[in-house]
Amino acid sequence: MKAEQQNRFSERLLALLDHVEYRRVESGEDMEDVARIRFKAYKMADILPLSGTTLIDDIDFDSHAYVFGIYFEERLISTVRVHHVTPQHRVSSSGSIFGAEINGFLDAGMSLIDPVRLAADPEILKEMPAIPYLTLRVATMASEHFDVDRCLSLVKPQHAAFYKRVFDADTIVSPQKNCGAYKIDLTLLAARVREIRPWLYTRFPFFDSEPFERRMMFGDSLETQHTPLTILPTARLALTTQSRSRSQA
């Protein structure tokens, strides 16, 4: 993508972010909304089965799992579940499928972010193809907040090129057939988040965020909230802060 096209694309994403809210999902009612989005997305993608624990499972409530709803103009458009995986806490969806590779990272002392269950409302996705970027911003924030070594991508093989292009992700497991409960083909990639972060935020400034946004997204203070906390993106503020810092340097 040429520089001029890249700048226009980034500005469009920043403009969309002006209408986005993130909400951490912890209540049963909001989990039902997440299940509906997952159902729509999985049905469109012909991923079966579509009932019972395939839509909401025990791992959604793991102590290191963070489920988010992404709202555009107050309408739920997508969802993602992020796992903070450490050598001491190894629960993750990717680990349940490619355990040897994930344990290899963890046995080496690494920590990981495992973003899974990314699902978008198919009808809105047709009108707003940028939804994956808006949703995966949660993973970039988690990677920085928890200061992990790698961010994983457990995806269909046809989606691998996107993660390589956007996140410079490395292939960890080549495409495998009939993986996991869904019996679909999957591949595993991993991004070297600390190494790519300066480049990523320069190229895609909408992924950036301020520390206080990340604390609201992943901090323990949410445990005291009786209603879901709505979090507004801070990418524009982060971009302004960086520009001011460069001008004062």
From TrEMBL:
Signal peptide: none
InterPro entries according to UniProt: Acyl_CoA_acyltransferase, FeeM_cat
Annotated Pfam families: FeeM (PF21926)
Top-level taxon: Bacteria
Domain N-acyl amino acid synthase FeeM catalytic core: 33-191
Protein name as catalogued: N-acyl amino acid synthase FeeM catalytic core domain-containing protein
Species whose genome carries this gene: Pararhizobium polonicum
